[in-house]
Amino acid sequence: MIYLTLFKTHHFLYFIGSLNFSQQYTKSNNNCIMGTICHRGLIHILCQGTQNALSTTGNSEIQYNMMKDMYTGCEIVMGNLEITMMEHNRDFSFLQSIREVTGYILFAVNEFSRLPLDHLRVIRGTMLYEDQYALAVMINYQKDGQHGLQELGLTRLTEILEGGVKIIQNKYLSYAPQVNWLDIVRDGSADILIQDNGPENACDEACGDVPCWGPGKDKCQRLTKTVCAPQCNGRCFGENPSECCHIECAGGCSGPLDTDCFACRNFNNSGPCVRQCPQALLYNKNTFKMEPNPNAKYQYGSICVAQCPLNFVVDGSSCVINCPPNTMEVEKNGVKRCEPCGGLCPKACHGTGTQTRQTVDAFNIDSFINCTKIQGSLHFLVTGIKGDDYNSVPPLDPEKLKIFNTVREITDILSIQSWPESMSDLSVFSNLQTIQGRSLYRTYSLMVVKIPSLTSLGLRSLRRINDGNVYITGNKKLCYHDTINWTRIFSGSSRPQRRQKQTDIKDNCPRSQCVAEGHVCDPLCADGCWGPGPSQCLSCRKYSRGGTCVPECMFLTGSRREFATSSGECLPCHPECKVQEGKETCTGPGADQCVACANLQDGPHCVPSCPEGVMAGEGVIFKYPNKQGRCEPCHSNCTQGCFGPSIGDCVGSSRNTQSQTTTAIVLGVIALVFVGFSIFVLTVLYRRGLAIRRKRAMRRYMENGERFEPLDPGEKGSKVCARFLKPTELRKIKLLGNGVFGTVHKGIWIPEGDTVKLPVAIKTIHDRTGRQTFYEETDHMRAMGSLDHMNVVRILGICTGVNLQLVTQLSTQGSLLEHVRNHKNKLNPQRLLNWCVQIAKGMYYLEENRMVHRNLAARNVLLRNNYTAQISDYGIADLLYPDDKKYFYNEVKTPIKWMALESILFRRYTHQSDVWSYGVTIWEMMSYGAEPYDKMRPQDVPDLLEKGERLSQPQICTIDVYMVMVKCWMVDENIRPAFKELANEFTRMARDPPRYLVIKVRHLDAAPDEVNQRSADLDDLDDVDFGLDDPEEEVLADSLSLSVPPYLSQSRILSLMTLLLLFCRCCFVQGMWQSRSRLNSARTMSESSEGFGTAVELEISEDISLTGSLKKRRHREDSAYMSQRDSLSGGPPETPSPEMQEEDQNGYVLPGDGPERGDCTTFIYCNTLIIPKKGPNCLSCTTDDRHNAFII
Q: Transmembrane residues, as ranges (predicted)?
């Protein structure tokens, strides 16, 4: 048999002999080094790696010479290969012999052009750079030059067993990114980072679709994994199913056998690649025991060796440099092994007695911690125990003496001439076993002299004094010493001539006095004792357990039974022995000496489990337990264990796998259904509880607010409900939109002192001029916070600061503008007219509270649900400039197309100007979100309005609805209808929707269904996530030149109004032309709108004419105007309030007959034909003609 010889020289380990690698792993060497025996001239060289990372040792010249000395001729690097900070003129051809690196490769901050690792096949990655990379190539170029890495010479690298790849910032490296690293890296989840390298160059044509390592047809990458057939579990040497490498191969192979591998995945056993090296113990199926393996080998790196290198020791089945903790190096049969210490590992310490260390004292006692052997003597003198004032040595703490509990051996003498008065024995040396006596003091090796407090020696473990005499004298209280059989302790003495005088024991406590005081040995002791109690016996009369004498062992009682050795020592039975009642459990310490087994039985041995995968002489052994609890061998074809004796009972067989799979699937499905149902129920309950809490909290905070009572006793009492919040109570989540005055965020309000999270909208008001801050709480803020109407967005709170934050209810449906645009085919007349009513009611509420909106548009009307509209963004301008008489939109987009003419020209904002914006808002809604004057530039709108042009009639509106819009756009603001009248008018229309709006839809919902659906929506208060689009503000671009569409001319409007005045005395006409008294109306201009402006500060050209019909105006107090109105309308009847109409509990107007639809004679203009109609229904046209009809 060919043997293996190992020796080490300098940095290399040479393995000579039967390392039968493939051709790539061997080389011829006819000149054997150091005269060792070579087998067929084959030699294998290993070298140690480094672990310096990016740090260097000395200058680059020293570092280069060290690497050249280390790696020249090296084939396997045991560790890491690190090359850093090398110049471009260095020659690294000595690296070409390296075929394997067990750690990682680091190549960083170098300047030479090529990495010559042409024979490297495997990087094992047992250690990783940055804990994740097995190959790291970084920053390899000259900072101020043209030199740098251009090519990775890794043409034979085919496998990285652990870790990933990092190739970054190599300015001239062109081919590395093209390499198929997934074919090389075994771990599919490993990080592959390749970036910031040189431009990619094309591979040679001979490579085809295969990547390459560099230019030339010999630089094509060899793929060994991604091209393999599906049947291959690892690498392959071809694409056919029969060309798979052995499972133990790494880096590819030349054939299917385990001897054809280029490298081994685990270990190389002198040629074949194996999963593990031959173990030191083998299972003997005849004796049912693990026995030594004569062919055992040890793991050294990835190689199985018969013996470890000279500077290594054997730890189990591996070669290691140092023994692990709690083990010690022991040489057995010429082999150094790591063995368990069996307690404290040996530690030798120097003793006392020298000139500088005469006695144990407070300064040196810590040096004896964990010492098991004292090299020399131990002296305890007065200067050490009580201190030495002359040398400034403090007294010794008696507790410190317990350090000597670990001492087992003293090579010279133990001399005790002083001892702490609090200690009555020498039990700190209870584990002392031997006093060698190599160097004596006047023939004595044990001396105890004049210790007045000493009553017993307490040296319970002392069994041997090799040389020297015992001197114990002058201890007036010492007993028990005369019971010791000193002859047995001195039996190993090497000086027979001194046996006559081995003990000098005198002047201690008389024996009679000791007996009288009860200081006698325990009855269980034999041959004397060291002190009181059964634990101090020199030997026992019957049995002993752990050094203490006992009358009996636990043969029949106790949780863990015992047996007795021939010397009378009680030892526990093996843990696998089953406790027996009424009889002994075992006859000895072994698992084969049990009366019965607690678990299983393998032959005569009791075992916790049957052997599985244990190495035996002919292979691996698997066993299974039978019904009697005995281990039986599996079928010879079972390779992973079994559950029975037949081949069908093997682990992994089809029958067993199918049964296990079916059971697992059934149990998994049941568990999944149960867990899913539980999660669903808990989620529903949690969400319901959260929603209920949110509803209650929202209702509570909407109903209750902070009340501000007047400070002046003469002031009128008022209770204003407004809530001022702290910034810490608000949390913004995401941006919903931007507007003229600021931004809107979806957010959460967490009221102070509460845990509920309320979804809200947070509008942040910005003053772009920097003139206004919002630290003070104003009356206008309190007024805004006090508004509470179902058609006005409720302000839940106000947060002051640099920017003002208004917290409002979160709208669930977005803006009205987007809703009518997105659902134009689903809207019916009933809903549109009700929205008109609701907006008018909301504006009437603002009018009653003296709040001018200034920016009413469909984009600023939010939908609480599909049926309830709410007005938002009211009163913000007054917050910004409360002291100004007018507000100028400077450097922002201005909604010119929605503004009244007096607002555009003179910056006067009143409730009447809001009526104009209301008409435009209704037009937007009836036009399904169309933009007013969409083909006109904003700066042209004022001239158009002064000429009498207005927005055209929407397609779905009859003339009745359109005439309401026209009334809102009257130049004379005093002629425009009030919001109260508009609410009444649209309420009347909402009772007969098809009469006023003509909408062609495929599925027109019936009124009862709409009512039911609306009621359900109104009851639903759950939070719905939505996004608000940015409000569409007018862009004042002078470059736009679009043609003006045909709008309704002023002459046509006047002719229609004349017809209405002449021919209708009832129905719509009567409602529209009712006389109203304006003297006591609540419709007032806002405080910020008093007076007329002197200039127009808008982003429009300065050629806008400020002249026109608005120069002279009539006020509502004008008697001529009032008399004309009264004469035309037939007197000033009282206008009913919009709240007095018939509505449901939610303010929604339902279809039905109104009081105004009585008997009257009207003329209906249908397709230019005037048809008289009399009866309860005044209007009657065909569906197709109704949008062209109007009353005359």
A: 664-686
Task: Give pLDDT, residue 1126.
Answer: 36
> Are 798 and 724 a contacting pair, CB within 8 Å?
yes
Q: How many residues does the chain have?
A: 1192
Please tell me the predicted confidence (pLDDT) of residue 777.
65
Mean per-residue pLDDT, 303-311: 87
510 shares a domain with 530 = no
Determine if residue 36 is labeled as part of a ligand binding site: no
Q: Are residues 372 and 478 in the same domain?
A: yes
- How many structural domains comprise the chain? 4
**pLDDT at site 379:** 96
Q: How many CB atoms lie within 10 A of CB 804?
A: 24
Q: Answer yes or no: is 689 a known binding residue.
A: no
Active site (catalytic) residues: 855
3-state SS class at 538: strand
- Residue 495: the pLDDT is 53
Cβ density class 11-49: b for 16+ within 10 Å, e for less = bbbbbbbbbbbeeebbeebeeeeeeeebbeebbbbbbeb
pLDDT in tens, 720-765: 466 788 888 888 888 888 876 788 888 888 888 777 788 888 888 8
Query: Which of 778, 810, 842 delimits the end of a domain?
Result: 810
**Torsion angle of the four alpha carbons 157, 159, 163, 164, in this order, in degrees rounded to the nearest 10:** 60
CB-based burial label for 764 (10 Å; 0-12, 13-18, 19+)? middle
Q: Alpha helices, DSSP H only, in 1066-1106? A: 1067-1072
The mean per-residue pLDDT over the stretch 622-630 comes to 92
Q: What is the mean pLDDT of the chain?
A: 77
Q: Is 736 annotated as a binding residue?
A: yes
Domain that holds residue 287: 281-340
Q: Which residue has the tokens 């109609």?
A: 1173
In this structure, the answer to whether residues 325 and 470 fall within a common structural domain is no
User: C-alpha angle with apex 216: 213 to 217, nearest 5 degrees?
Assistant: 95
> CA 607, CA 620: separation in Å to the nearest integer?
18
Phi, psi torsion values for 735, nearest 5 degrees? -80, 130
Structural domain includes residue 766: yes
- Using CA atoms, how far apart are residues 249 and 234, in angstroms rounded to an integer? 8
DSSP letter, residue 1088: G
Residues 515 and 419 in one domain: yes
Per-residue pLDDT of 942-976, as tens digits, reads 999 999 899 999 999 999 999 999 999 999 999 99
Q: Whole-prediction pTM value?
A: 0.45
The alpha helices in 704-795, defined as continuous H runs, are 779-786
What pLDDT does residue 1000 have? 76
What are the distances in angstroms from CA 689 to CA 49, 756, 760, 1017, 1025? 65, 11, 19, 20, 19
Q: What is the pLDDT of residues 54-88, one digit of tens each?
A: 887 778 899 999 999 999 999 999 899 999 999 98
Which residues, other chains included, contact 135 with Cβ-Cβ below 8 Å and sequence gap of 6+?
Answer: 104, 105, 123, 160, 163, 164, 165, 166, 167
431 and 379, same domain (yes or no): yes
43 sits in the region (left: phi over 0; alpha: psi -120 to 50; else beta) called beta
Residues 311 and 396 in one domain: no
- Burial (CB < 10 A; 0-12, 13-18, 19+), residue 738, is middle
Give the pLDDT confidence score for residue 428 in this predicted structure.
95
Contact in structure between 570 and 548 (CB atoms under 8 Å)? no
List, for residues 195-231, the tens digit of each pLDDT value.
999 888 889 888 888 999 988 888 899 999 999 998 8
738 assigned ligand-binding residue: yes
pLDDT tens-digit map of 376-391: 999 999 999 999 988 8
Pick from 810, 826, 861: which residue ends a domain?
Answer: 810
Task: State the pLDDT at residue 1142.
Answer: 54
Cα 601-603-605 angle, rounded to 5 deg:
60
> What's the CA gap between 174 and 202, in Å, rounded?
9
The answer to whether 744 is annotated as binding is yes
Is 724 annotated to bind a ligand? Reply is no
Burial-class residue 1190 by CB neighbours within 10 Å (0-12, 13-18, 19+): buried
Was 737 annotated as part of a binding site? Answer: yes
